[in-house]
Amino acid sequence: MTYLVGEPLDFAADSLAGFVAAHSDLVQAVHGGVVRADASPQGEVAVVVGGGSGHYPAFAGWVGPGMAHAAVCGNIFSSPSDSQVVSVSRAADNGGGVLLLFGNYAGDCLQFGKGADVLNADGIDTRIETITDDVASRPVEQLQERRGIAGDFIVVKVAGAAAAAGYDLDAVVEATRRANAATKTLGIAFDAPTLPGADAPLFTVPEGHYELGLGVHGEPGLSSHPLNGVDDIAKTLVEGVLAEKPADARRVSVLVNGLGCTKYEEMFVLYGRVARLLEAAGLEIVAPIVDEQVTSLDMAGVSLSVCFLDDELEKLLLAPALTPAFTRGAVEHSGPRREVAAQAGAELTSGSPDSAAQGARLAEVMDLIARTAVADADFLGKLDSIAGDGDHGQGMVLGSRAAAKAAAAAAEAGVGAATVMRQAGLAWAEGAGGTSGALWGRALEAVGAGLSDEAAADAATVLAAVRAGAESVAASGGAVPGDKTMVDATTPFAVALSEAGDDLPGAFAAAAKAATEGAEATKDLVARKGRATTHGDASLGHPDPGAVSFARHMTRIAEYLAEQG
Fold it and tell me: Coiled-coil annotation: which residues (predicted)?
């Protein structure tokens, strides 16, 4: 349980502000995260890491000479938005290109991918590498689909050292890929994390057991095992990470990583046994680390990571580094302070009176969505925790509140309907982060693209715009009906809109009914997209949270339209 909490939804932002205040000699805040306080050499590759909060030291704690140049920080267990990726990367860029480095999760891939597109279009050479060290999450034949967990630390250390050594962008990418391929991690949990402000953990571990193959976002393990003592656990972890040992492996870097609520003394007890087993397997241990580097709030558990070393990887791992959470050797960091430009706000242009009036009505709808999200938050969070990370309810509140606030501000400024919806979409993606944040944000922007600031849209135009928004979800996320995602609700919703005629309340009611039926039908599906795929069978018998939340929001809007007449 998290005890020191102000407003739970502000926990990530509050924590980041305190972190920057405590480590102002090494980092400074920028929109969306942190960058190094000191300017890096001109022409040096900028290694930008990131992901959701709740994993400290990952990712902000790794920013400093010899490791990352910046970290993009999302909400708890949620990927940052693409605009945050762009903002942080621009602040970190030294003219040598940018490497975006993060764990392999759907939301991160979507948001960092979009950010990379923007950066490349702006002339900043930007590459993406995902970290895939979790051996439990996929078999070796599907290595590229594995999750990134504690091995993130090792891969980021190699990438940062390569950049500091003067490697060009291609060479930094190559070293990073080899580090990722050489790094294997397996984790266990004794107890689940609890989201800030929540009164129950995201899952329960049977007494006297541990969960094997856990995620770091509150996902349960892949299997439950009797707790038969530390020797058994050490053997299980070592066998798991050595299953893919290269035939010529002789030296390994080792990380015993605490997940947030495991005592260092316990980790040392485990490491002693791990070391003996690795040495018995003919491996020489190089500079072992027993520490918390990738946590999961207050999860009780531990993971074991090994990196099978060659001469270059060993040199890069042993290179000096100085960050808030990790120090190795001596590093100079007394250069000039990095200059960071302030984030500029968007300029809003007034719309026509009729379009502005329609924009004000749309702002009321966004407020309705926000109130619905608050009412549904606990229900959606519990539904999401069955096979996912339990943050969907929280994400919907964060995104919808930000969207409602932006829509209200835009409407008050007298802009037209198109701009109101575009501002709402941008704010939703920024406020929520994660996959659903990106999809809802782009859907609202697509609605805005179908409207006008010059004239109020008639019912047919509004319905066409809403249909385009629903259709954008599949186009943006790459899912298809049957994948057990939000698309299983948005697709029948869009089809029903196209067949329902131009009566706005009637068409919306029919479409909301179709969305509800589509969401309900996901109970019989196994997840094929997103974090729930790792625990796909666990989701059987339960509907998809994203599909359910979309259907509930559309139903509430349909009721609102019927009330308006």
Answer: none
Asked if 528 and 371 count as a contact pair (C-beta separation under 8 A), the reply is no
Boundary-marking domain end, from 313, 328, 343: 328
- 3-state SS of 499-519 is HCCCCHHHHHHHHHHHHHHHH
**Structure tokens that stand for 184 in this block:** 């294997």
* DSSP H or E segment with residue 543: none
Angle subtended at Cα 129 by Cα 127 and Cα 134, rounded to the nearest 5 degrees: 175
- List Cβ neighbours of 424 (8 Å cut-off, separation of 6 or more): 362, 363, 366, 403, 404, 406, 407, 410, 444, 448
Helices (H) and strands (E) in the chain, counts: 16, 14
Contact assessment for residue 12 and residue 75, using Cβ atoms and an 8 Å cutoff: yes
Say yes or no: 126 and 161 in one domain. Answer: yes
Q: Are residues 324 and 363 in the same domain?
A: no
Domain range for residue 167? 8-328
Distance CA 1, CA 206 (A): 18
Residue 184 · residue 335 · CB < 8 Å: no
- In whole angstroms, give the CA distance from residue 169 to residue 125: 9
Does residue 337 form part of some domain? no
What's the structural domain count of the chain? 2
Spot the catalytic one: 23, 69, 217, 553. 217
- Look up the CATH number of the domain holding residue 498: 1.25.40.340
Tell me the backbone φ, ψ of residue 559, rounded to 5 degrees. Answer: -65, -40
Angle between helices 392-412 and 545-564 (to 10 degrees): 40
Residue 532 lies in a domain: yes
Q: Omega of the bond prior to 102 within 30 degrees of 0, cis? A: no
Distance CA 124, CA 95 (A): 8
Task: Clarify whether 217 is annotated catalytic.
Answer: yes
- For residue 295, being part of any structural domain is answered with yes
Cβ proximity of 542 and 519 under 8 Å: no
* Preceding amide of 59 cis, omega within 30: yes
> What is the four-CA torsion angle of 341, 345, 347, 353, rounded to 10 degrees?
180
User: Tens digit of pLDDT per residue, the chain (565 long)?
Assistant: 788 999 998 999 999 999 999 999 999 999 999 999 999 999 999 999 999 999 999 999 999 999 999 999 999 999 999 999 999 999 999 999 999 999 999 889 999 999 999 999 999 999 999 999 999 999 999 999 999 999 999 999 999 999 999 999 999 999 999 999 999 999 999 999 999 988 888 888 999 999 999 889 888 888 999 999 999 999 999 999 999 999 999 999 999 999 999 999 999 999 999 999 999 999 999 999 999 999 999 999 999 999 999 999 999 999 999 999 999 998 876 567 777 766 656 678 889 999 999 999 999 999 999 999 999 998 998 888 887 777 898 899 999 999 999 999 999 999 999 999 999 999 999 999 888 999 999 999 999 999 999 999 999 999 999 999 999 999 988 889 999 999 999 999 999 999 988 899 999 999 999 999 999 999 999 887 665 566 556 668 889 999 999 999 999 999 999 998 6
